[in-house]
């Protein structure tokens, strides 16, 4: 699961968090939204991921748009 966290260290394993890009997937029931190239911080040891609040808000917006259009599967890229 992705979540936000302020520290530089991974709260799960104590590893280093590095900037990277991840693929975000959300199953909303009527629609599955896949967003590729999402900017995130990723633990270099356990792979735990964090997405910033502003990015998460953008993802929610895209999911809401897809649902409004009646899409069943939406695949987009933030790159
Ligand atoms: Zn970790």
Please tell me about this protein's structure.
This protein has 79 residues and is of the alpha+beta class. The protein has one domain (17-77): Ubiquitin-like (UB roll) (Roll). 20% of the residues lie in helices and 38% in strands. The protein is built from one helix and four strands. It has one helix spanning 53-68, and strands at residues 17-27, 32-43, 49-50, 73-77. Strands 1, 2, 3 and 4 form a four-stranded mixed β-sheet that branches. β2 (32-43) and β3 (49-50) form a beta hairpin. The longest helix has 16 residues, at 53-68. The protein starts with 16 loop residues before the first strand and ends with a strand. The structure holds zinc ion. Residues 10, 12-13, 15, 43, 45-46, 48 line the site of zinc ion.
């Amino acid at each position: 699961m992705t979540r936000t966290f302020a520290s530089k260290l991974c709260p799960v394993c104590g590893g280093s968090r590095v900037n990277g890009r991840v693929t975000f997937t959300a199953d909303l029931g009527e629609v599955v939204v896949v967003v590729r190239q999402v900017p995130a911080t990723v633990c270099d040891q356990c792979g735990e991921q964090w997405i910033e609040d502003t990015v998460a808000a953008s993802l929610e917006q895209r999911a809401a748009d897809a649902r409004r259009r009646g899409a069943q599967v939406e695949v987009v890229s933030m790159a």
